[in-house]
Amino acid sequence: MVVVGKVAILVNEREKSSLKWLISFWIAYGLLILFLAIITLGSWYLLVSGAKPLWITILITLFMTGLTALSIFKLIDQIQTFRGKAMNDTELENYIKENFMTHIIPAIDLQNGQAVRLYKGDYDQKTIYSDQPEALAAQFETMGAEYLHLVDLDGAKAGTTANLETIRKIKQATKLKIELGGGIRDLETVSLYLDDVKLARVILGTAALENPVFLKAALAKYGAEKIVVGVDIKDGNVATAGWLETSSTPYLDFLHELENIGVTTTVITDISKDGTLTGPNFALYEEIARETKLNFVVSGGVKDATDIKQAQKADFYGIIVGKAYYEGKIDLEKVLKS
Fold first, then answer.
1. Which residues of the chain have pLDDT under 50?
2. Does residue 186 have an active-site annotation?
3. Catalytic residue among 232, 270, 274, 307
């Protein structure tokens, strides 16, 4: 109960709800152990009573005793692991944020070294918001952001590292955990961004669809925490090449393939919503939550704080905020610190 008390101080109502679910799981697990223990005691009673055939009674008794003991040790291990996180307030807060919170992630789309936004992925319909993306990133950090979503639009279109120097400047200007997508199509580029620039994770898009061997190699080398897949959806299928092309692969089929490969986290964008300020396609995300076990970041269409709250209520892994902030539709600092 000391653990629960400490957690209650650190988390808001949404986090408490997630913690309540966790404790409920522990209780259900405990009831299962109680049920197993009753059966085990019954089998021991039969054994002592000399129930026939004796060898079957012995096997059942040993099996049930082992299963009950294993279940008890597993429950104790889970609780102790969580308690270990609770021994330090900073560690506990980070644990809660990573496992029970919807990450609110500001976004910067880069083109020619500038922070821009496209309308529905159309490179001919763009708005320039800043000539100094690094200053913008530092501003997000001051507001309370922990993550930053970067997209190299030039890289996504041409498969290059066109905005590398700008990305370096952003990394040097902040301590944000930066995820980057756009133009990352080989292990050399993955290594450049993760090992050299020291970004938190990279987002593979076109390459993940067209070259699963490369995706598997990246996962094997860096792990699922650093290798994220961006799934851009247009007319029900996966789009590629910076949204300029649409494949014949249905998005759910692709998501299931990613699960089988070992991907755990994705950034999912409904292109028809991106840059429109009309709200995300929550029906799409609810379907994905039902059909897969992937962590996914909602991307495209966020219009105001109500969209953030809806994503939090649904317990989605994350939500990206872009144009809504740039157009003054959302108080980003307020939602980040609420």
1. 1-17, 85-87, 92
2. no
3. 232
